[in-house]
User: What shape does this take?
Amino acid sequence: MMLINSILSTMIWLPILAGISLLFLSDNDERTKNTVRYISLGASLATLFLGVYLYLEFDGTTASMQFIEKMPWIESLGVQYYLGVDGISVPLILLTVFITPFVVISSWDVIKLKPAQYFAAFLILEGLMIGVFSALDAILFYVFWEAMLVPMFLIIGIWGGQRRIYATVKFFLYTFLGSVLMLVSFIYLYGQTADFDLQNFMMTPLTMFEQQLIFIAFLLAFAVKVPMWPVHTWLPDAHVEAPTGGSVILAAIMLKMGGYGFIRLSMPITPDASEYFAFMMIVLSLIAVTYIGFVALMQTDMKKLIAYSSIAHMGFVTLGFFIVWSFVETSQGTLGVTGAMVQMISHGLISGAMFLCVGVLYDRMHSREISAYGGVANTMPIFAAFMVFFSMSNAGLPGTSGFVGEFMVILASFKANIWYAFLAATTLILGAAYTLWMVKRVLYGEVANDNVAKLTDLNSREFFVLSVLAASVLLVGVWPSPLIDLMTATIDQLMLQISETKIIGVES
Amino acid sequence: MDMQTIFSASAEIFLVIMICAVLIVDLFVEGEERKVTFWLSLASLLGTALLVLNNTPESREFIFDGSYVNDPLAGLLKIASIIMVGIGFIYSRKYLIKNNLMKGEFFLLSLFGLLGMLIMISANSLLIMYLGLETLSLSLYALVAFDRNSSIAAESAMKYFILGAIASGSLLYGISWIYGVTGSLEFNEIALSISQDSSLNSLPLWFGMAFVVVGIAFKFGAVPFHMWLPDVYQGARTPVTLFIATAPKLAAFALIYRILVDGLGGVQDAWQGTIMIVSLLSLILGNVVAIAQTNIKRMLGYSAIGHVGFIFAGIFTGTQIGYSAALFYSLTYIIMAAGAFGVLIALSDEEQGDQLEDLKGLSQRNPWLAGIMLFIMLGMAGIPPWVGFFAKLDIINAVVDAGFAGFAVVMVLTSVIGAFYYLRVIWFMYFEKAQESKAIVVSRDIGAVLSLNGLLVLALGLFPGALMQLCISVMN
Assistant: This one.
């Protein structure tokens, strides 16, 4: 019973405590290294099972918060330890618990330097990320949000590539700078409501000017995380230098925090300002989709290419959210928001898989340059099949998860304004161009050099990871309704919430 | 003089007696036996702490004809100062022995400094405050010059002394004006006369107050009266820097609180702007200049200036929550500062150990020590869940609550600038290769206290409620 009552806390603290316990193991000999690996796998699988249980017990027909845990934390400041989930957070939590075991498995014996600390960092990160998605108190949310930077800072800095220090410091400062103003906004809102309860923040009336300032503060925090053009420049650096596991977590989950922030905080807390700035947000999203698509086309480094493609795909998420205000009745925007949510989950799976594919090649060749490869399909046929599949889904091939979200968002923008749809749809061409061109250069043609000729195909561990991810991409692609059913009620409720103005004295 | 008075001041009286005892005992010990001095000093601290605990009243009481005050706030500040001095002794012992500096004077001067702090904390009269301040300052000047063979120490002691003397003079001059205007030296009397006669709130009082604020800002090391601080932090031996960086900050907190809030609270409008500007300048200059430092003690010195900016920000709000937030900030900051200098002391090998470069690869040479430093740096940078974040949150909350949301934005932006140089310490420890691979061994007692210190930075962050509540309750 204890477990059921505090399932969210268990999901947060189980991986964190497991991670901390790993730090006390010295990892000098092979036996402790194995212990470390099995503890990490066990902890991440246990969290995955809890996640499955959460999914089964979750009631998708209501928009109210579920699995609530609430107790006072810092009484003098009115801060509470307040957790709860709804249809927006559950899919993202499921994504988190689903991806982390793959990170552990894929790094199994690849990491030679301090493996205990490496796995510990990922487990702690997992707990913190679940914390972000389930915190309902602003300070608790902020604590998880910022604390998350520390393990990622160390992951990139210790296990990263050549320019890791530059990349990791840039990553940390960029995201830290983005989020401090969010803290000031929280404190300001605390002054209005007398506690840090996010749901009270959504209720409290605010003038347009207040909303605009708060929206901009939130925008800085979330736009950096998403990342939106023009504050995206940290992402290619961080991705390129991070170890494979770090890239996977960064792309699959941490970027989603920005999207989650928009839908959880910006839209309901400052609905009028969101409407006011909606056009700007749409323009920024479309720039990300089109311009960054072209930038991706020009990359010579595989990881950089996927990083830029992530920015372009995340542009769909922000587009889907802010297209809502282009409709007279915001409730018609449900399609766009749902599409954006599906896109987040789908991008989590696909980009994670793409980075794992690059990781497979990097482990063998220690190069991320496209030009170092060529004709890999000849020596690694099974791998090539997987990579083609994930590239196709990255390009939005129907039948894969990549199609569902993008299609819904494009459809919604078509209804809003045909030019939005026109620009958004260029991704179908650009996405196909940059991913498939990369596939062509890396996988096909003659065997480029001796190193490629000596490549060995996937081992069973890699095969397992990629095949499960491929199956899930396919599943979401052909049968997305369980995922959509999870969030329908919450999104409907959100549409109601944002359609009402929060400015006192103005009728909506 | 009745017994009650004696009891109320028994901690200070006991400390004076023990200082005399240490002084005499130290004459008869030499070399290895010096540890007698060490243990006797620790015992005096313990005794003083117990007496403070025992004699702290529930509410404010005045003794010695109103020139001395005993209240819960004084109790908390005194206990914290005593603990800090004790921790400093424990961290320093091995270092002093290794550097041939294990002399009785270190302990004596520190104890005299502590006596000055206790007096300042409990002062209810401008003159007693000054007396305590000079007792503290003179001990500090001598402590900085304590390593007589070091020319850099002598130089910084000289700077400290001259600038400190000017600041003391300024303070004393301001005191004389305030006395002239209000006709009293006692803080509650001053507050009373200001509230009764509003015509006192005019230029002569402000004139005196300006000089007092200069003196206070100097003792804190707030911009633009901060010049001494980086030099002294760098020039002094690390144990002395630890001493300067920790407990005197609490005495300075008492100084500003007793004078500006208890005494001149009625003319808050007159000092609020000044403190705000000093706070703003400290935040910006401290954090920006710290980036350029290569000497870690100097860097921590500039970082201290930045932290003082935060403490002042809590004060200038002029609200109860601001004062208690400033108190919480001071307490948690000195815990972190003690840990940081403790790690540096544990690292130092003769002259080495105070360049940032010396931290390179610490995570390989001693992972535990690196972990403690990681906690402290993240705490100082204000990253949750370490305690520094909650201290900053508390202050920013008070600032926003007082209607200065724009100021709060500056505070968080300077925190981002500050994060860079704290992160640089972490990157040197974790991302760089060690210059030499020799493992660093830390003796068990220092290791244990340092670990506690580091864990406290995390534990207070996970559960800051109790200490915050305590800070609020001692203010009432």
In short: The first helix of chain B runs from residue 3 to 8. The mean pLDDT of chain B is 89.
